[in-house]
Amino acid sequence: MSLLQPDPQAPSVWRDNLPVTSRYTYGLAGERFFRILKDEGKIIGSICAACGATYVPARAFCERCMAELTEWTDVGLVGELHTFTVLFVDMEGRPLDEPELVGFVRFGDGGILHKLDADPDDLQIGMKMEAVLKPKAERIGAITDILGFRPVT
Ligand SMILES: [Zn+2]
To answer: How remote is the CA of residue 60 from the centroid of ligand 1, in Å?
Structure first.
């Protein structure tokens, strides 16, 4: 058989819906990361005692040397802008009413991708960016507990 001579015995396309349910879990390190973000308003990372890497968000194992990560550290709310972009369309490709800024803010050897509250003309790679958190009563233990990052003034 070839692409020009399709196999008449081959299965055809089946169009329908499959009921799929799933539950995302944060895992051990993610659970702790989001619980401390929610309850204490802190961003924590995990440190690899074997190679010295600092992971933010916290992880359970080092991706470099596979060591179990059992040391935790408060990395503060100020990271360094690693990269950013301006979005003009949403996830469906529809134009946004107002362009949005997103960026990767580095903490240790990791970082957080999030919205930026800034004028793009004022941003410079390497500048200090501060996390803006929701009020404690509104936090739910999710990345949206961080409203975004803004330049440190
Ligand atoms: Zn390591």
So the answer is: 11
Token look-up 């790679």 returns 125
Give residue-wise pLDDT tens across range 125-145: 999 999 999 999 999 999 999
47: CA distance to ligand 1 center in Å? 8
Q: Which two tokens stand for residue 25?
A: 């879990």
Residue environment code for 84-104, b if the CB has 16+ CB neighbours within 10 A, otherwise e = beeeeeeeeeeeeeeeebebb
Alpha-carbon distance values, 11 to 4, 6, 19, 53 (Å): 16, 11, 21, 49
* Cα distances (Å, whole numbers) of residue 147 to 60, 61, 115: 25, 28, 7
